[in-house]
């Protein structure tokens, strides 16, 4: 069985799917990624599907599952490079890809993850409007 | 019903493993290009074929896929037959409902594939296996 390689770039795991994956290969990728997130402590996962000429319900479900697993493991997943014909077909197939963040390309995906992480960092010091200090007159 | 005469010899792919499902996708892509389908229509028919071939494998216990080009005098198209001798489908309306699955899938294979093609014909009965024929025409 073929395996999809996972690259580590800084704080991000990059998966560039270059083959027409069998279902077994897709399931293995899901498991490999979960292990790598834990082993590396990375906070971002980018899945580049530029080379995929179709996304069917099996691969669609794999993408959703990866997004859910990484969220539980404190990592953000962004799917990048979806072809227009693939997007059109996904909608007609009825796949909603709920909970999946997408970006145009790897660079934008990295920006999105960085922005997400920065926001979350702010949240730790955000005590909400009730506790906000107001300037005295 | 699918009309038109076949062009060239139909190509057959056995479906006995998930590697065979990959081969079905590749064969369908090649024939869809030969039938001059647009890129979006190629994508739709390959996606439909992937769903149906996976069903042939998972629920039908394996079977075969036959791919041919068709021509109705005005346009070309691709016709694909998925056949298995598995348990068949008892309640077809239910099986064609979005989200219905007996196998822990998303339940979008049959219903979604039907939306993605121009013609969708299914023959099935309990104990009689399942035969699905789809056609996608060039525009
Ligand atoms: N070739 C087949 N033989 C027997 N049952 C089938 C076949 N194809 C589909 N089915 C039945 O129809 C249901 C819906 O199929 P589908 O829409 O592809 O969803 P999923 O594959 O996610 O279960 C399947 O769960 C199965 O019960
Ligand atoms: Mg299915």
From TrEMBL, chain A:
CDD domains: STAS_RsbR_RsbS_like. This is Anti-anti-sigma factor. InterPro entries: Bact_StressResp_Reg (IPR051932), STAS_dom (IPR002645), STAS_dom_sf (IPR036513). It comes from the Bacteria. PANTHER family: RSBT ANTAGONIST PROTEIN RSBS, RSBT ANTAGONIST PROTEIN RSBS-RELATED. Pfam families: STAS (PF01740). It comes from Micromonospora endophytica.
Automatic annotation (TrEMBL), chain B:
It comes from the Bacteria. Pfam families: HATPase_c. CDD domains: HATPase_RsbT-like (cd16934). Residues 40-139 form the Histidine kinase/HSP90-like ATPase domain. This is Anti-sigma regulatory factor. It comes from Micromonospora endophytica.
């Amino acid at each position: 069985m073929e395996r999809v390689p996972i690259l580590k770039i800084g704080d991000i795991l990059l998966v560039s799917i270059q083959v027409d994956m069998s279902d077994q290969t897709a399931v293995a990728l899901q498991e490999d990624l979960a292990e790598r997130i834990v082993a590396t402590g990375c906070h971002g996962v980018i899945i580049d599907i530029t080379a995929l000429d179709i996304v069917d319900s099996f691969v669609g479900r794999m993408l959703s599952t990866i997004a859910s697993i990484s969220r539980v493991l404190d990592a953000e997943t962004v799917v990048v490079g979806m072809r227009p014909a693939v997007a059109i077909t996904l909608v007609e197939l009825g796949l909603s890809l709920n909970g999946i963040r997408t970006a145009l390309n790897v660079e934008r995906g990295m920006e999105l993850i960085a922005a997400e992480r920065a926001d979350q960092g702010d949240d730790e010091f955000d005590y909400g409007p009730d506790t906000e200090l107001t300037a005295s007159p | 019903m699918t009309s038109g005469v076949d062009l060239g010899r139909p190509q057959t792919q056995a479906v006995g493993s998930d590697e065979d499902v990959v081969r079905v996708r590749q064969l369908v892509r090649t024939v869809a290009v030969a039938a001059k389908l647009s890129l979006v229509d190629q994508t739709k028919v390959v996606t439909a074929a992937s769903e149906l071939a996976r069903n042939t494998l998972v629920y039908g216990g394996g079977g075969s896929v036959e791919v041919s080009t068709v021509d109705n005098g005005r346009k070309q198209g691709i016709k694909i037959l998925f056949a298995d001798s598995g348990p068949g489908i008892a309640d077809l309306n239910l099986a064609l409902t979005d989200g219905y699955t007996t196998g822990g899938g998303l339940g979008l294979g049959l219903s979604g594939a039907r939306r993605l093609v121009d013609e969708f014909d299914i023959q099935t009965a309990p104990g009689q296996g399942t035969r699905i024929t789809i056609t996608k025409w060039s525009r």
